Amino acid sequence: MFFGHINKIERNRYPEAILRAFDYLKNTDIDSLEAGRYPLHGDSYVQVLDLQTKEKSNYLPEVHRKYLDVQYWHRGSERMAVAVDLGNNPVAEDYSDENDILFYQSAENEQEFVFKDGNFAVYFPEDIHRGACRADETGLIRKVVVKVALSELEE
Fold this sequence. Notes:
CATH superfamily: YhcH/YjgK/YiaL
Radius of gyration: 15 Å
Helix content: under 10%
Mean pLDDT: 96
Strand order of the largest sheet: 1-10-5-12-3-2
Structural class: mainly beta
CATH topology: Jelly Rolls
Number of strands: 12
CATH class: Mainly Beta
Low-confidence stretches: none
Largest sheet: 6 strands, antiparallel
Distance between the termini: 21 Å
Number of helices: 1
Strand content: over 45%
């Protein structure tokens, strides 16, 4: 997992596929977009999400196998729980190839971070993450998730 702020990116530290995601986030008027899915490059795409944060217990930890997530907090704050996937967490829902997602019942050694406007996080397949958890109070957030196809990291 990488995390930081969209205005403080050292370009020489990231692969081109992730830089494309950052460029999209920095150069797109996110406020003008409707919530939904948008193409980006190759198999990669963008999801604009308007979410209501809730208690952590309302969400399951998840991982992906074919895509990594570049998550960007455009408006509002969200608590994310993260952990390294060591393969020993109880599965709640088996992996869906169609949706590229596996849900765990719980995640061993979860750590929590609060993300605010301008923050980003990059979650790799070995990074379990559980989002939309309330920070201090429940609230609406606008978040953009760029799904970067792992095959594009090899370009």
